[in-house]
Design goal:
The protein is an alpha/beta fold and 240 residues long. The protein has helices spanning 42-50, 69-72, 75-82, 93-98, 109-121, 123-126, 194-206, 222-231, and strands at 3-5, 11-16, 22-27, 30-34, 61-63, 85-89, 135-137, 140-142, 150-154, 163-167, 171-175, 211-214, 220-221. The longest helix is centred in the middle third of the chain and has 13 residues, at 109-121.
Length: 240
C-alpha cells in the first residue's frame, strides 16, 4: 500500500488500486476517503482502511471526485455501514439520485469509439447503488469544521462535476482531471469538455502542489503538468 506524507504530518494512503484508485487522507484522528473504487474491491478497501485507522476512529467523510461508477460504486454501502457523509459537486447530484453517470466523450479516436459503444449500455453495466450527496460543492470547500488544512476545488472537464482535493497545500488528489497511466502524458482518454479540462490543469498547477495523485495510474510531479501544458500551448496561471 503506497503512502505519502506532507511536511505537517498529513498522511495519504492509496487504499485501492486496480480498476481505479482510492485514497485515505489521515491527520489528527480525522479520516477522509477520496473515491471508493468498484464493488468487487470493497473488502480490500475496508481491510486496508482498518489496517490504518485506530479502533476508535472511522471514515469521517467520503469525497467523490466525480460519480462515474468506478469511483463511487461503494459510496452507498460505506455511508450506510460506517456513517460516512458524502461530499461531491452539486453537478453530480442528479446522477447520484439515478445511480448512473454517462460516459464522457473520448479525447482520441479509440476512446471516442468506446464512448459511443458504451453509452447504449448505460446503467445496466456502468451503474451504482443510489446515494445522497450530503455536502454539495459548487466551486470550493474548506474543511474548517474538521480543523483540517484541506480544500476541495472544482476542476471540471472530464465531467462537469469533477473536483480535486488539495492536501496541506502540497499534494493534490485529482480524480480523472489528469491520468497517470500513459508514459509522459496526463491526458485522460475521456473528457466531456477538453477546454474546461485544460483550464482545470492550469488551476491545479497554480496551487503550488508538488505531487499529484490521479484516479487511475501512478502519481506524478508538477514538472510533467508543465510539460503537458506546453504541449497543448496552455499559459500557466500565477501560483497562489
Amino acid at each position: 500500500m503506497k503512502k505519502w506524507r506532507t511536511k505537517n504530518g498529513y498522511h495519504i494512503f492509496r487504499v485501492v488500486t486496480g480498476r481505479s484508485n482510492a485514497y485515505l487522507v489521515s491527520y489528527g484522528g480525522r479520516n477522509i476517503l477520496v473515491d471508493t473504487g468498484t464493488s468487487p474491491y470493497y473488502n480490500r478497501l475496508i481491510k486496508n482502511i482498518n489496517s490504518i485507522i485506530t479502533y476508535s476512529e472511522h471514515i469521517d467523510m467520503i469525497v467523490l471526485t466525480h460519480t462515474h461508477f468506478d469511483h463511487c460504486q461503494n459510496a452507498s454501502r460505506l455511508r450506510r455501514d460506517h456513517g460516512s457523509i458524502i461530499l461531491a459537486s452539486r453537478y453530480e447530484s442528479e446522477f447520484a439520485k439515478k445511480g448512473y453517470t454517462p460516459i464522457p466523450k473520448g479525447t482520441w479516436a479509440y476512446s471516442r469509439l468506446i464512448s459511443k459503444i458504451g453509452s447504449p449500455i448505460g446503467s445496466s453495466f456502468l451503474g451504482y447503488p443510489l446515494f445522497p450527496i450530503d455536502i454539495e460543492v459548487e466551486d470550493e470547500y474548506a474543511f474548517n469544521d474538521f480543523d483540517l488544512n484541506l480544500k476541495v476545488l472544482s476542476t471540471p472537464g472530464h465531467s462537469a462535476g469533477s473536483i480535486s482535493l488539495i492536501v496541506d497545500n502540497e499534494i493534490a488528489v485529482v480524480g480523472d482531471a489528469m491520468f497517470g497511466i500513459f508514459r509522459n502524458s496526463i491526458l485522460p482518454p475521456f473528457a466531456d469538455d477538453k477546454r474546461k479540462m485544460f483550464e482545470s490543469w492550469k488551476k491545479l498547477y497554480a496551487t503550488g502542489c508538488r505531487l499529484f495523485l490521479p484516479g487511475h495510474g501512478k502519481n506524478f510531479e508538477k514538472g510533467l503538468i508543465y510539460r503537458e501544458m506546453n504541449r497543448f500551448n496552455l499559459e500557466p496561471l500565477k501560483a497562489e
